[in-house]
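Re: that chain you flagged

S.,

Sorry for the slow reply, it's been a week of failed gels. I finally had a moment to sit down with the sequence you sent. For the record, here it is as I used it:
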Amino acid sequence: MTGFDSVAGAGAVRELAGRWLPQLGSRDFVVSPVGLWLALGAVASGARGRTGEELAGLLGVEGEAAARAVTEAGRWLGAADGVAVATGVWSTVPLLDGFRRGLPGVRFGVLPEAGYFALPDEVFGATDDISFGEIPDAQKEIDDWVRGATGGRIPGLPLALDGSEDLVLVNALALKASWLTAFPAHLTRDEPFTDGSGVTRPVPTMRQRIPAGWVWYADGAVVVELPCEGGGTRVRFVLGAEGAGPHEVLPAAWAARGERTPLAADSVDLALPRFTLRTKTDVRRHLDALGVRLALGPEADLSGISAAAMYIDKVVQEAVVEVAEEGVEAAAVTQVTMTRSAAAPRPAVVERIAFDRPFGVVVLDGEGEGDGAAPLFLGWRQGTS
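Prediction finished late last night. Pasting the structure tokens below so you have them in one place:
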């Protein structure tokens, strides 16, 4: 195998995405399944006992295997054209050497009010190279890190620090890709779009004629793939049956080749709205439905991270995707906060496909195909916000 699937298991990310989608509703949203998987995977590398088993049920990995998978996936994604990925951990409590060594690509920092001197010697001894000099402004430091890691697309932490945090783990994912064939800007004009509530209004709509091979049917939806320069990512737009919701429509984007039906045409006149989606998602309230419960309370066993008992207090993800004539830009920041306690010739046929009602957008890694593809970003354009 090659690509994301060989280092982490794209199937685990697709499973997470499929289970997460019903929790997201049907209003406009954009999320990053890979970003959430990487952040929770770093947590899972330090989870033990039943807490580790619960996280493994969602992520497909736990313990040392999770640490290896997160590290290798981050390195592979970061090597793709136009993709950047980074993870950082800031804490008030000393972190175990094994946790730090297991995540060699992660940045480690210190939060204010670090309680080192209040901890017993066996905990204090777990730290390594932490300086006890002046501790910088953690909010500014992490916000600067987030802004740099996302190329300025997300200006800072999704959730501001309030002083209750004992550990903040942040994953940042960003991409910028140009279409292999740009949409001619002079063809963009307002065209009607009917949103999920049935209201029709004009929206800026891009137009381009594309090869029929970029379009197929899968699971009752039409999928349009717009290839990007360099091949680092693939962007697919998914139009389902009228009234279908995102959890019914978006999985068609990663249907295997054997599950696709080609379009019976020679080319396609594509009409696609130019749009930007930006949402902030409280993921913690979804985790219980996803089978993660112990990690969210005092019974959590995260003893592979620190000798100080902690549990997950908050999980928030902010994501943005912008689709325009030249290409696509996207970014996501996932914040986990812990607190202790060949056919015969035929006449040419041109199909017209207009994304003039709710539709989805999926950004996939550039190597995996079908059941080997990992969804980096999922978006739904309902048009009601």
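What I noticed first: The chain has a mean pLDDT of 89.

Talk soon,
D.
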